[in-house]
Amino acid sequence: MSGHSKWSSIKHKKGAADAKRGKLFSKLSRAIIVATREGGPDPDANATLATAIQKARDSSMPKDNIERAVARGAGAGTDGDAAYETVAYEGYGPGGVAVFVEALTDNRNRTAAEVRHLFAKHEGNLGTSGAVAWLFERKGVVMVAADGADEDEVTLAAADGGAEDVEPDGSSFQVTAAPDDLAAVRAALDAAGIVYESAELTMLPKTTVAIADESTAKKLLRLMDALEENDDVQAVYANFDIPEGILEAVAA
Question: What is the 3-state secondary structure (H, E, C) of 104-150?
Fold first, then answer.
């Protein structure tokens, strides 16, 4: 499990009750609308949409909101979101950590300026297209709580769904799959009665950068938080490896 994944988990546990739901639901709706328009309204055939819907459910977004977003993406209702497009920004944060940002925007110039400002403000540097993308690969990742789950059963079920790997990681098992196989892996785990904590498309780092200094970790995680709070940013990925003790200290 990457340091970024651990940090996301810590933040979720620490601040879920304080989430600004209106802003969050707006982001989630936008992701569902665009995913539907780009890949169709069937989540079983559209891995990006399936991930967007799962994130919405995990955030307690009402079912009606999800269904309306899918309907809008499929062509029902208004055309107000027609101009949204997917863009990516790449750069480096404190400690030489590679940062990959995915956004949905109706104004490239505005979003680029805001992202560039956030990198500069938090001692990072926004690079050009391709600067760090090669350090990541798109994967489907399912996290299964190790408590009450048998590793052999998880491995067998995941393999039935076409998973590439299952790795123990502390209190969880990380199941990795090709993006197009994520839905099949989820279905196989469901059929086996295995409950999972999350299932999403993500960018996994091929290599990581060790950050053992708490000061650098704070600067880096402030950059991550600032990017994630931007209205247009949908996801932020980084290749840092910070010891869990430091992550906990920073979160506290």
Answer: EECCHHHHHHHHHHHHHHCCCEECCCCCCHHHEEEEEEEEEECCCCC
The architecture (CATH level 2) of 85-134+207-251 comes to 2-Layer Sandwich (3.30)
Handedness of CA 125, 129, 132, 138 (dihedral sign): positive
Q: pLDDT tens for residues 59-116?
A: 889 999 999 999 988 886 555 555 788 899 999 999 999 999 999 998 999 999 999 9
Q: Which amino acid is at 23?
A: K
| Domains of the chain by residue range | 85-134+207-251
pTM: 0.82
Strand partners, 126: 91
Residue in this structure with the two tokens 């949204």, named with its chain if needed: 84
Q: Are strands 233-238 and 136-145 parallel, antiparallel or unpaired?
A: unpaired
What is the full DSSP assignment across the chain? --HHHHHHHHHHHHHGGG--HHHHHHHHHHHHHHHHHHH-S-TTT-HHHHHHHHHHHHTT--HHHHHHHHHHHTT-S--TTTT-EEEEEEEEEGGGEEEEEEEEES-HHHHHHHHHHHHHHTT-EE--TTSSGGGEEEEEEEEEESTT--HHHHHHHHHHTT-SEEEEETTEEEEEE-GGGHHHHHHHHHHTT---SEEEEEEEESS-EE---HHHHHHHHHHHHHHHHSTTEEEEEE-EE--HHHHHHHH-
CB atoms within 10 A of CB 189: 24
